[in-house]
Amino acid sequence: MEDEDDPVVEEIPVLLSKTLAEDLYLLQYPVKSSTAALADSRVVNCCVKPINQQIKIDYALNAASANYDAFKGEQFALAADGKQRDKSQLLTFRSGTMDKQSFLSSKPIEDVSRYLVCVLQDGEMHATPLKGIVSMRQLFSYFDKQDKRTKAEQKAEQDADGVGEDDELTQVTVKFARAENEKVRKAREKSFNYLSKMEAEEPWCEAFWHEKQSSTAELERQKLFGVSGGASGSGRPDPDSAALSVHPVEYLDMLISKEKTDRNIDSLLPSRVVCMHKLKDLPLLEQLKVILTDAKVITFQQILRLLSDRTVAPEKVLRLLPQVGWLIRGNWVVQSEYIYPECSVSGTNGVSAEQMCKARDYILYRFTKCDKLERHHLTTITQLPTEEVREILRSIAVLNTASRTWSMLLPPNDTFLTVDEQEISDRQSAFWLARSEKFSEMEQCSSSAAAAAPPGSTTKRVRKRSTREGGSGTTASTGASASGTVSTSTISRQLSNG
């Protein structure tokens, strides 16, 4: 296959900075209006809860704006704080009108280890890991204070109206707390009520807010940049930057968790299908068997590109390939017993694995002699149903609709044989020559049957029936399949890219 024209347009070096790795948070505003310019608004108060990673920010409202409803703002402040304002009470709006809007954070993502903040400058990308990601949503606490104050006033009025009445007797039940074990304690600490209680008990810590134009904010932004050239200020190599100088395949392995990927893929793939991650754990001979079974027809160079270990010697691969495949005119094809295992039958008419392997071997033998085959001729010689012959041909050949003949999936590759492949081809040619006598007997038997038939009659093929279970009257049909295959789309995509 010809490689696609995919040139590298530009290479951008990536530098890792960990100066702010333990203190960098990303604030998101998912419900903010598109017209709200909070970045330019003045922050009147900011506080945090470090343990629970909560942030609360109060942005000032422009009460002098022509778009501000002063009457409604005073109503909100009066409803939240009431008419009788206690000096010891912490007022929601100190100015007597709604002059701010509050935002409270929540954590949409628990694990942020795979997220970075990147800055592109001077052709270099500087990346800093995140400590947390929080979503800022508007807080309407003044409505809660209004409801709480209204309920308290109603309860006070009810108590005043009920003075002098005898209190009703109430039955009291005493319960003793049982000693909890370690398992019960851990379950209780993970409950929503316990986490909400711990979150509410943590006090707010006031924080300083620096405007983005301030010198302090500019100094903090400078910490997002790593040191170019992989060296720290002391002149020694930076190990974090040097860790990024790895092979692309190793870098992808570091990004993708192998355990999670294997578990997710295994739950989606059909039975006896092996993913590319699991292929790496198999012995080399098993890898070759899986690749040949799924690829159907493949060149030696394509096999080397699909192997997980790119450092394996080609001579070692060539020593193992004849154990699982045959070299047909420069291309490798898996042996028939791996396509049709012992004691299995075909999925359409229930032909035994022995007959399917014999017919497939004959078709491969014919492809060593000529480039094109006719299906009806093969059906007559192999004495198999048309569906089974078509199934074998589709696994190794392609149909030419114009001439109604079948050719191998890949063109002959004889001119690209290496010295070792030529030796293997010579040995396998001797193998096919030794089996040619049996194949000649098959052809003679089919010719004799055709000659013995009465003139004008057609030779009726005998369909091979599947084995039946005693007394059941149902056909036991087990589809022939290999012990393991790689997803066809995965192999095809890698072959086209390679």
TrEMBL record:
Q: Where is this region: Disordered?
A: 445-498
Here the segments flagged for biased composition (Low complexity) are 446-459, 474-490
Q: Which domain of life is it from?
A: Eukaryota
Return the InterPro entries for the record. RNA_pol_III_Rpc5
Task: Give the signal peptide, or none.
Answer: none
GO cellular-component terms in the record?
A: RNA polymerase III complex
Q: GO annotations under biological process? A: tRNA transcription by RNA polymerase III
* Protein's name according to its UniProt entry: DNA-directed RNA polymerase III subunit RPC5
Q: Which organism is it from?
A: Anopheles atroparvus (European mosquito)
